[in-house]
Amino acid sequence: MAAYSSSSGLEVLLSSLQNAGDADSMLNILNVLDELLSAGTDRRIKNMISKGASEALLTALVNTGGRSSPDYTVLLPLLHLLAKVGHRDRRIGVKAEDAGAVLLTLNLLKQNIKHARRAAACLWVIQVFSSSVSTANLIGQNNGLDVIYYLIPPYTTTHLHTIKAGIDTLAALLRTKANVCAVVSKGFICGLLQLYEDWHSKDTGHLAIGIRLALLRCLHKATRNTGARQTFITHGGIRILYQTTHKCLLSKGLESLVELSVQLMRKCLPKTPLPLTSDQSVYSFPLPGRPQDTPDNDAAADESWEESDDEMAEGDQEEDNKDKDFDDDLETDLKNLCFRPDPDKPKGLLAGYSQLCPELSHNFQELDLSSEPEESSTASSSDEEALLFNTFPSHPIRKERMRSNARSESSLSSSWSKSENPTEGHAAATEDLEGCDFHGNTNILSSSPNIWTKGRETGGKPCPGCNGDEQDNEEEGEHNSHHHTIVDRLLEKHGTLIPNHEPKLYRAAAIQTKSIPGFNILAFPDFWGHLSPPGHEPMAPRKPHIQRQKVFEDVQRFLNPDDIINQVVFDLEDNSPQCLSERTSDSLRFFSKFECGNLRKAIQVRRYEYDLILNADVNCSQHTQWFYFEVSNMEANVPYRFNVINCEKSNSQFNYGMQPVLYSVKEALDGRPHWVRSGTEICYFRNKFCSAQGRKRTTFYTMTFTVTFKHIEDVCYLAYHYPYTYSAMTAHLEVLQKSVDPAKVFFRQQTLCNSLAGNACPLITITACPVSRGWKDMHQLRNRPCIVLTARVHPSESNASWVMKGTLEFLCSSDPVAASLREAFVFKIIPMLNPDGVINGTHRCDLNREDLNRQWSKPDPVLSPTIYHTKGLLHYLNSVGRTPLVFCDYHGHSRKKNVFLYGCSVKETLWQSGSTVDTVGLKEDPGYRTIPKALDRIAPTFSFNSCNYLVEKSRSATARVVVWREMGVLRSYTMETSYNGCNQGIYKGLQIGTREMDEMGVNFCHSLLSVAKDVTEVYSKKLINHITLDHNVIDHNSHNCFDDDEPPCVEEIEYSTDYPGLTVTELDSDVDANTTRKDDEEEEDGHKGVKHPQARFRHSTIKTHMFPQLINQGSIEKKNTCNGVSNTNGQFMN
Ligand SMILES: [Zn+2]
């Protein structure tokens, strides 16, 4: 055997197979090849195929099978071997067509329908040939579908192998649109359903599960287009499957049947438009320079797809992707990978940004009062200045900058930013507590209902859920004072000490916040504050078969529509004086008109079940993921099922242990002000809904979860993740500013610019005050490298804000590490790049319906001001030789676990892309790995293996890539924090809470020590041009960072709409079983080899009607003349 395995031996073998004349030598060769195959690894089999094994076998088949009376002692093993080899050869279909073997095999089948073994062998080969679309179509055009379909009999106990081979082959042929259409028009779908029902009802001993599975798989393939699914429904497919499945659930060991049936029902349920008047967001915002009602034109683009067989196209695409060894998205053009400063940036415009470096111009006069000047600093003030500014390139705006300093530092709003952006700036936040309020069952909070609720003078309409009393100013004053006392009393009575949170400050901040709907209600948790609950929160265990159970419940809605309540209990668009939910007293009440809130509609479906629809991003008809709403009027200790029915992503961490978060007002007032991970029976799956405007191609997913409320008449809040509002950030910054010791910590809050809606985008500068005003200390201060951190460009990624909160608090703290970091660096922090998105509860975009993290290449100064000015600031730093040492943009990740970084590396990108660019001469500073390596050691949530440093074309306009490429920042990162939890380290199996996020923010700061050590040296090189062409090769150990994909879900059926054909092993074992069987030997029982004592007996009694369903000869003979062979009998044997 060893001799044959060498390629030359194999070639000899294959060539003699094609030329061998006598049966014995052919059999010998086939035997040897079969042994090679069964003993061989996949690699050896691939090698055989590359040496022409398929072609040789096909030639042998044509030679042997083409004879008038073929020798089946040779032909049968030949077909068996061809099935095995062909199953592993992706091009077998094309090769078979070229060899003329396709129709020949079909004819052999037609000739042998009486011979179970021979027929099975032909079926397997046809099945394997059908892997090519054109081959499958060729077989379909030549009556292959009819021949095979009519081989499938109603329930029997014999020839199960052959029957299964027939069904599997029919399924394989249904990979093409033409064959699916043919099957629908021939009425085979109805027939297959009847066959399934028949096998199901008569196979009481469950001996033919394989056949039943094969029939379901075949139905799956047959229902790949809309018409086919319609036919399926018309013939009662859903009801048949529902009933059969119900019976299957009563027996053990039928899991696979149940799974497939449920999946099939889910797929075939008719598409239902979402119950909305329009997909367009309820919130719209007029964009400057654009007509007000520019429709979201993705709708028009979509229409052309409406009639297409969406799911089939999807399946085909998946197959194509398997062919690709390398990621097409990786950037391989060296020009795009190298440092490339933006040549367009007019230097003059940058001057204004000097004001955003107050640490450079501040004179620290206050130091003279508290500390002695150092002996060394003898230079006069003007000398000092000259020396200081000599460290920078000479700059024409220097004096202007010096003059404007006092102004620029004054408050939240700078005159400069106002001139850049004409939108009105902020008035300074006041302590004046205006009528911001809570909503809901106010009797929890006080005995005088509705005192909390009223309109706010900023133009907000009265809330639909409240009493709706309009007050004049006088009354408002009264209410305010009354209100204040209640707030005070409550805070006094229940207020807990939440570090760095002051409810009154929060309220004051919220009053300044500008939202599109004019929110005038505060969500209680944001006002009251959140404290991490004690202990850790493990990921939720997934209940076995949870998806099956949920889909089954959804199918019941279709079958028994009369059981469904279908009552709208909340509608964001409903502005009637009373909330819809208040009309029905025993249903839950919902509310979402508050900062970061997102719930568009709630529909009561069953007594304790609600469908929830999320609002699309502002000015958009898409992007739904984030939710945050209030719920009240609940019963205690009753499980309520909630279904968010318009999710868009194809998978979610909700399938892998993640839970939404819940906040109970009663619990908070009891001293437990916690957002807690909550919900059971959580599951995320594709549903039957399509967009409201009937675009059938849109696909939605359901995120379902069940909550059992602890208290009756509580007010609870549910959210996708721990909410963190814009007002929370501004209040937090105020608290931090007050907390620092101004003699030690230089903390400045400025406005980078205003957002489109006129909310300030704060920029924070944190560094250490110099020890003295002496030249040496001031020189050190002015030469500290910058570290620029940004967060929350994506509004739903509230985890980014919690991590940033940890970073900010640490940097302001008295921790010695924080102190040395302040001495080593100047931190420039923009904690919220997308204020408007955050405020209005969007998921992905800004008001201009763009993903701001795709705007970095050419940010529009009017439409994407925060990105434009962040980039401007970076350009400015770059232009004065203060290119940031580190840039990091904080994000949240919905599909992976842990915390990890994305960075940029030329070499790793080229290697991973399989690019032919010669990287030998490319020298790259490996310093981009320093921080991830440090984090790997110190941060428990961090996973080094999840990091990668690849530059993708699709990410070329993200902060990370642009800052790296255009500013030459070697350490430019995106930091991703999972919404879920960790699957490694000491937090393995736990969800990430705010405590862990806070800790991550701290640890990120700690990791910066790793780059602080050799700062002076590194910085003197100015970091520009991080790659140089050189002949030294830097050794990178690992660049394979892609092996961290999600483990498969416990139930793998979830998303596929299609079923793969037989696996290699399944086909092999079927074929092998056929080989060992005597030609006309009868099978005794189920194909899995389960022995049944009654089998033989039953067989003998049923024998006479083994194949009562005759082949429809008429229809076959029409086209059956292809090779002059005709089908005369539809039975395998008599
Ligand atoms: Zn993001």
Shape call: globular
What spatial order of strands do you see in the largest sheet?
14-15-17-16-18-21-19
The small molecules bound here are: zinc ion
What is the rounded distance between the termini? 43 Å
Mean pLDDT: 78
Characterize the main sheet.
7 strands, mixed
Helix coverage percent of residues? 40-55%
Instruction: Give the tally of β-strands.
Output: 22
Report the oligomer. single chain
- Class from secondary-structure proportions: alpha+beta
- Radius of gyration, whole Å: 35 Å
Task: Estimate what percentage of residues fall within beta strands.
Answer: 5-15%
Number of helical segments? 47
Q: Would you identify the regions where 5 or more consecutive residues have pLDDT less than 50? A: 1-5, 297-325, 371-436, 440-479, 1016-1061, 1079-1134
